[in-house]
Amino acid sequence: MPSVIIVLIILVVLVFIALIKTIQVIPQASAAIVERFGRYTRTLNAGLNIVVPFIDSIRNRIDLREQVVPFPPQPVITQDNLVVNIDTVIYYQVTDARAATYEVASYIQAIEQLTVTTLRNIIGGMDLERTLTSREEINAALRGVLDEATGKWGIRVNRVELKAIEPPTSIQDSMEKQMRADRDKRAAILQAEGVRQSEILRAEGEKQSAILRAEGEAKASALRAEGEAQAIRTVFESIHAGDADQKLLAYQYLQMLPKIAEGDANKLWIVPSEIGDALKGLSGAFGNLGGDSVGFNTGNGKEQQQTSPRHTPPRQAPPVD
């Protein structure tokens, strides 16, 4: 009796294990390779799948989602014989689970080695400056080679990125000095250009100011001359309209003489000889007046004046040679 119970328990356990092996649940975006007696039978897709227990076996479960694999820095020699370290990142996706399982032993290692060799071929044809400035070109060339080579493995390379390109330390120092010199040069050029523009604008401003000042002075001179001409014209017309005689003109002439001597800077002034004619005509007008008498003698263009006060005898001024 106990032996029968043991056998039943064993059978139940075997049935349970068979059920577990018969029912296979594959997650979404995954696939499983089924082999029967070591030979590929089929690929299980996502969902509930039934297999033959103890005959069919699951060889490999593969993730069909896009994968990201960073590779360590690889030393690469450029065309100008400089060693640079390049970090790469590969974005790939398994499109055929069967090919990824049976066409290559380890597709991750195969992609890494293919990336290194392809990268050395591409960088070997470029100098350092072009390498540092042509990341998109390198990425496109690398992706094209990898996608073509990994197609038969059931792998699609979606993207290749260069994380870092590190030249030697000495080259980095030289590049930094060159960049600093270029920045200083551009700053000096910009400063000189600013000074030049400032001088040009200042000169233009001074030119415009001088032009406007000259125009203002010219207009003022014209207006002043026009005013003086108008004043002379008015006086002339007034004199002619009043029919002034020689005596009035002589009197006006004498009134202008003190204005000629005005000012502290006037040390010497000359009386024209024509004033004698005016004084002769004016002396006749004052000759008949009583009281103070004023006489004038003229000679050689110089003025002599004689005054006779009311209570003192007249005194003749000495003649002027």
Q: Ranges with pLDDT <50 over ≥5 residues?
A: 288-321
- Strands ordered across the widest β-sheet: 3-2-5
Percentage of residues in helical conformation: 40-55%
The number of E-state strands comes to: 10
**Amino-to-carboxy terminus distance:** 183 Å
Query: What structural class do the secondary elements suggest?
Result: alpha+beta
What is the 3D form?
Answer: rod-shaped
Mean pLDDT: 77
Please provide the ordered H/E string of secondary-structure elements.
HEEEEEEEHHHHEHHHEE
Radius of gyration: 61 Å
Helices and strands, with pairings:
Elements: H1 2-22, E1 23-26, E2 30-36, E3 39-44, E4 47-50, E5 56-63, E6 67-77, E7 83-94, H2 97-102, H3 107-123, H4 128-133, H5 135-150, E8 155-166, H6 169-242, H7 246-260, H8 275-286, E9 293-299, E10 302-308
Antiparallel strand pairs: 1-4, 2-3, 2-5, 6-7, 7-8, 9-10
Helix pairs in contact: 3-5, 7-8
For the structure shown, list the relevant keywords.
321 residues, alpha+beta, three-stranded antiparallel β-sheet, 8 helices, disordered C terminus
Report on the structure:
With 321 residues, this protein is of the alpha+beta class. Helix content is 52%, strand content 24%. It contains 8 helices and 10 strands. The strands form 4 sheets. A 3-stranded antiparallel sheet has the order 3-2-5. A hairpin with a 2-residue loop joins strand 9 (293-299) and strand 10. Helix 3 crosses helix 5. The longest helix has 74 residues, at 169-242.
